[in-house]
Design a protein that fits this description.
With about 325 residues, the protein is an alpha+beta fold. The protein folds into two domains: about 120 residues, Beta-Lactamase; about 150 residues, Alpha-Beta Plaits (2-Layer Sandwich). Helices cover about 45% and strands about 25% of the residues.
């Protein structure tokens, strides 16, 4: 194998090959093998100074490796223990004791190509590894495209679900969302409050200034409610001028009364629309549900409505609070 024409032939047909002399030293290495060991002068270096035979495990000498001629071996680079190479050894029939070892990445070709910066020029033209590499890259591209599509679909689904739970005019939650939150709180047996709010004189605004003015008032009211509550609370528009607030973790009735008073006070101020003053007020009915209650949504909402109508009957622009495990005073 000292003939230059023969080594050149191997470089073309098996660019990942090694030629070892009878003492197990590297006499020649293919061009791709040199790329795996860019900082090592392989010529004259003992094979086991550069490579480790991982399987068969008993293969620790050149003589032991020669006895495995024709069988698949698993190697790694001593400088990179994580590398994974396949190898097969053949004896030359020239009486010199020279052997040829052909290497391959096997299924770890993608990692090998990325780690050592290889290209199709570093493999034999007929090597199926190139087709395998293309298939892996194609699969990766297809999976990336699939992930991107899934992200878009998931985003569309989330947007659709959000829209299904949102009042389009005010951006608040709608009745469906309110029911969902209420059921979740009922299941947790936590303390919370339900505040029903009805806008007084809203019909007069619509009748005198038009629906555009009414929409502006509803949007302004929604903003005020957001400003006067916490992010953890739920604000829902459940009817034309009807709102429901669900307030979590309410510790005492004074907190509820303060929130109601602030809302009533702010909603008494005229809301200006195109230079016209829209005058409304708010009547509020609140039910305070204690911890470990055993109530159902229908009864809670019924009691909140009862408290709301009591406020209206007593002159509007006021609040009525019901409390207790049953929702009654």
């Amino acid at each position: 194998m000292k003939d230059l024409a023969q080594t050149h032939m191997l470089d073309v047909l098996c660019p990942m090959h090694l030629i070892l002399d009878k003492n197990g030293r590297i006499a020649h290495s293919g061009p791709t093998v040199k790329k795996l060991c860019p900082d090592t002068d392989l010529r004259g270096t003992p094979f086991f100074d550069v490579f480790v035979v991982k399987r068969p495990k008993s293969t620790r000498t050149f003589a032991a490796m020669c006895r495995k001629a024709g069988s698949k071996m698993h190697l790694s680079l001593r400088a990179d223990p994580t590398s994974d190479l396949k190898a097969v050894l053949v004896h030359l029939d020239d009486g010199s004791g020279t052997v040829v070892i052909n290497l391959s990445f096997g299924i770890s070709i993608l990692e090998g190509v990325r780690t050592y910066g290889l290209s199709n020029a570093d493999f034999a033209t007929t090597d199926l590894a190139i087709e395998m590499l293309y298939l892996i890259e194609a699969k990766s591209a297809a999976m990336d495209a699939s992930r991107q599509l899934n992200f878009k679909l998931q985003g569309a689904r989330i947007a659709a679900e959000e829209q299904a739970f949102t009042d389009t005019l005010t951006g608040l939650k709608n009745r469906r969302a309110m029911d969902h939150v209420l059921q979740r709180l009922l299941g947790s047996r936590a303390a919370f409050a339900v505040m029903q709010i009805d806008l007084d004189f809203f019909k007069a605004v619509n009748d005198t200034l038009g629906h555009a003015a009414g929409d502006h008032v509803l949007q302004s009211v929604a903003q005020i409610m957001v400003e006067e509550t916490r992010a953890v609370d739920t604000i829902a528009r459940v009817g034309g001028d009807e709102f429901t607030l669900i307030l979590c973790d309410v510790a005492d009735e004074q907190t509820l009364l303060r929130i109601g008073d602030r809302l009533i006070e702010r909603l008494q101020y005229p809301i200006i629309f195109r230079g016209q003053a829209c005058k409304i007020s708010a009547s509020i009915g609140t039910v305070w549900i204690r911890e470990n209650h055993k109530m159902v949504a229908k009864d809670i909402l019924s009691d909140a409505d009862r408290a709301l109508y009591q406020s209206k009957n007593e002159g509007r622009s006021r609040q009525t609070l019901l409390k207790g495990a049953s929702g009654h005073p």
